[in-house]
């Protein structure tokens, strides 16, 4: 049994991966992490033979010992029963999160991606940029700071050509819908507002002129790349999805090799990578999101990303 960790609002991508797993002869169990405290029954026991971990969802039962691999797509915020007394909410969240990780920690099987690596890399842009640089990719000058003086010096050193962004996305949807802070070009009139960095550290990077934006889906050595003509806004997610025109893109072999080297340095089997193609043809790495969206590349470009994820999972089981 292959465990697929996602959330209740996830559609399309999860279904495609599960369909391919079924075709390969590997049944899967969809685990909606947001519903763990409301729709799952857990039963953990210490027996003379050792610990046993079991989840039940409707008529489906999953024993940790039956799990042969894990596709870790996303871990979502727990739903809280609306009838629960607010005074008990902190205990509900704490105990269910603890119980969830007790189960997940028991799964000593192949993961795409291993959760601790996924979280560690996703929450640390400096590690990403360092690995990209070590692999030979071009990266933008970068500052992470909570101090206005640092930011102003960085702004001046880059002649005012600077963008700001948060360390983590506030939106987790394929089209960027919902509340999120997009990558934004810093204007001169915004500089006095940098005093507010004390309330929210941010990432400042040199502005990279762009001809095209790339979203690269990397799966255990396989690469699928979609491109967009650079929009007027700094972040493509701020544009209406009706005007976004994804196009297939072929990376130069040497750039693909550097991406592969970077992902192996990070020990990440999967990642959605953002890059820029500059007007002079140079490729610049921006970031890798271990839980990044790729459904639009499969939907609009026909890339077999879901099939590849399923096949790579199965390969990891059979090659153990």
Automatic annotation (TrEMBL):
GO biological process terms, semicolon-separated: SOS response
Database matches in SUPFAM superfamilies: Glutathione synthetase ATP-binding domain-like (SSF56059)
Residue span(s) of domain ATP-grasp: 129-314
One Pfam short name: ATPgraspMvdD
Example GO molecular function: ribosomal S6-glutamic acid ligase activity
GO CC terms in record: cytoplasm
Nucleotide-binding as UniProt keyword: yes
Keyword terms of this UniProt record: ATP-binding, Nucleotide-binding
Name this polypeptide is given: ATP-grasp domain-containing protein
Organism per entry: Chitinophaga niabensis
């Amino acid at each position: 049994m292959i465990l697929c960790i996602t959330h209740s609002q996830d559609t399309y991508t999860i279904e495609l991966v599960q369909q391919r797993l079924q075709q390969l002869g590997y049944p899967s169990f969809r685990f909606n992490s947001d519903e763990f405290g409301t729709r799952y029954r857990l039963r953990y026991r210490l027996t003379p033979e050792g610990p046993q971990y079991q989840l039940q969802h409707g008529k489906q039962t999953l024993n940790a010992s039956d799990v042969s691999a894990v596709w870790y797509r996303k871990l979502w915020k727990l739903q809280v029963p609306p009838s629960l007394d607010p005074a008990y909410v902190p205990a509900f969240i704490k105990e269910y999160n603890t119980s969830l990780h007790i189960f997940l920690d028991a799964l000593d099987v192949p993961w795409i991606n291993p959760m601790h690596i996924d979280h560690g890399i996703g929450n640390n842009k400096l590690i990403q940029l360092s690995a990209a640089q070590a692999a030979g990719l071009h990266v933008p000058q970068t500052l992470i700071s909570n101090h206005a003086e640092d930011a102003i010096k960085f702004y001046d050193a880059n002649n005012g050509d600077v963008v700001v962004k948060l360390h983590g996305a506030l939106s987790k949807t394929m089209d960027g819908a919902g509340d999120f802070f997009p990558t934004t070009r810093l204007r001169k009139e915004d500089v006095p507002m940098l005093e507010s960095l004390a309330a929210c550290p941010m990432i400042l990077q040199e502005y990279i002129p762009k001809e095209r934006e790339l979203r690269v889906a990397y799966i255990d050595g396989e690469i699928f790349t979609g491109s967009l003509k650079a929009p007027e806004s700094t972040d493509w997610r701020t544009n209406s999805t009706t005007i976004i025109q994804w196009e297939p893109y072929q990376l130069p072999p040497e750039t693909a090799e550097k991406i592969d080297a970077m992902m192996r340095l990070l020990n990440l089997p999967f990642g959605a990578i953002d890059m820029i193609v500059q007007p002079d043809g140079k490729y610049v790495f921006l970031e890798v999101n271990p839980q990044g969206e790729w459904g639009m590349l499969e939907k609009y470009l026909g890339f077999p990303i879901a099939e590849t994820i399923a096949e790579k999972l199965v390969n990891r089981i059979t090659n153990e």
